[in-house]
Design a protein that fits this description.
The chain has four helices and three strands. The chain is of the alpha/beta class.
Length: 118
């Protein structure tokens, strides 16, 4: 082995251009505040809830799941949206994401939706 001084590139891989393209395509730096509306007349299967708990949420973004119980699905959505619009803070949030008892989500579902929206 030859004598030498070895150092890694101090700019890091995220400054080499790839991260900029990834961040721009994903748009995770934008306001992605999201209210999740989850109507359930009775109970929700454990396997479904488990997929919801594994949803990846972008760092430093607001996420608020709201569970609605004992109402027909249409009424649950209508009343929850009315409540959101009547709330001085929540009405400024950008997105509403809905999940129902029969929707199992992949972990990156929210990230893919955010990327596809804009």
């Amino acid at each position: 082995m030859q004598p030498g001084i070895y150092i890694i590139d101090p700019s890091g891989i995220h400054n080499a251009g790839k991260a900029v393209k990834r961040l721009e395509s994903q748009g995770l730096y934008r306001d992605l505040s999201t209210v999740g509306i989850i109507p359930a007349f009775d109970s929700i299967p454990v396997r479904v809830v488990q997929t919801w708990m594994n949803l990846i949420h972008p760092m430093n973004q607001k996420w608020l799941p709201i569970f609605v119980s004992g109402m027909e699905v249409g009424e649950a959505y209508e009343r929850t949206v009315e409540m959101i619009l009547a709330n001085p803070d929540l009405k400024k949030w950008k997105y509403i994401f809905t999940m129902e008892h029969d929707n199992m989500m992949p972990p990156d579902a929210l990230l893919k939706l955010y990327e596809a929206i804009e």
